[in-house]
Amino acid sequence: MTELKSLAARTFPKEEVDAYLTQTLLDEGALHSYVSYAEDRYTRHLIHKDEDFELLIICWASGQRAPIHGHEGELCWARVERRKLRFSNYAIVAEEPLRLERVGEPMDGSAGFLDGPAETHSVENLVAFGENAASLYLYSKPYSHCDVYDALTGPRRRFSLSYDTIHGEPVTTDS
């Protein structure tokens, strides 16, 4: 985490973050306690969180996706750890009425593929890929809500974020 703290102090220079995430790979044993899947949604597993950055493993069962969403103006890097995911990046063209435009073509990435820094994007594990996938996420600042866009020209809504595990331990909710 020391290197990530150093990168945070320098406002996450893109080339240095890219190099760090490309060279610093997780071994399968370290990844194991953060990988679990749900049938109805992707799962979010917190590895580290402080005032400067947040590091998560997100697990995607076959066919699951995250809709087009924003990152509160913070930067987001994603690296595929297992299998394959499709990434699509977007730009906000207009606020009223809201209009988004895809930036470039969707990118399919296998283990080791790095996307970012993304501000507005979608991620999906296509049924055609046929297997569960996992990805590592680095967010330049932690946040608890994000904007989700229903379609390229649809309304924006706020979505609360939560974790399925924190430091490998399941999150429990009080009834």
Q: Mean pLDDT across all residues, rounded?
A: 91
The name of the CATH topology is Jelly Rolls
Shape: globular
Task: Report the top-level CATH class.
Answer: Mainly Beta
Number of helices: 3
Give the N-terminus to C-terminus distance in angstroms: 35 Å
**Strand order in space, largest sheet:** 7-4-9-2-1-12-13
CATH superfamily: Jelly Rolls
Query: What's the total number of strands?
Result: 13
Q: Measured on Cα atoms, how large is the radius of gyration?
A: 16 Å
Biggest sheet overview: 7 strands, mixed
Count of the separate structural domains? 1
CATH architecture assignment name = Sandwich
Element string (H = helix, E = strand):
HHHEEEEEEEEEEEEE
Helix content: 10-25%
Estimated share of beta-strand residues? over 45%
Poorly predicted regions? none
User: How does the helix and strand content classify structurally?
Assistant: mainly beta
User: What oligomeric state do these chains adopt?
Assistant: single chain
How would you sum up this structure, described in words?
- Strands 7-4-9-2-1-12-13 form a seven-stranded mixed sheet, with helices on one face. It has a four-stranded antiparallel sheet with strand order 3-8-5-6, with no helix packed on it. It has a two-stranded antiparallel sheet with strand order 10-11.
- 13% of the residues lie in helices and 47% in strands.
- A hairpin with a 2-residue loop joins strand 12 (165-166) and strand 13 (169-170).
- It has helices at 2-9, 14-23, 28-32, and strands spanning 43-49, 54-60, 65-70, 76-82, 84-95, 98-110, 114-118, 120-124, 133-139, 145-149, 156-160, 165-166, 169-170.
- It has 175 residues and is mainly β.
- It has one domain (2-161): Sandwich (Jelly Rolls).
